Predict the 3D structure of the following.
Amino acid sequence: MGQLGPQWGKRSRSLLCIRMEPNDTAEPTYYNSIYPFGVDEKRRVQIPAKWRPTKPGVEFTVMLWPKSKEGPCLRVLPPQEMAELMRDIEVMPNSDPNKVVLKRFIGSESEQVALDKGGRICLPEKMAQAAGITDEAVLVGLLDRFEIWNPERFEKVKAADAIMAQEAFKLME
């Protein structure tokens, strides 16, 4: 499906196609909107009901995402997006030094998390600390995945996004 662009995480326009798990007749999940939630003393954060998988036992991949100048956030990938990311990396030539860097980074800097019965995930301690997430978090939909932000950092990112939005929307014309 979508190829990785010059920077990891950017994909071609084919990203907007509908992806469903094999033999899954449910509607696809779109991660949209912004949800502020509290984080409890065990680092559990609520996942919005419409973002939760319908199948039990589904695990999300959580990784520290260091790409913002405002500071890192947590990037959360559902299983089909993680599988697609791994396929995209696997087709990279073995001679490309970025291939092993991406595999090493994702392998060492990510964790699988599952929803508990209350619809929450537990944020890995070191990742939560690095992302500055303590007692509050903002979940931000990215259509095919979502991010978890420290509220103050997210406000700065949101302001920067507003400045860049006009140029970015030109790509959709």
Notes: The first strand starts at residue 34 and ends at 38.
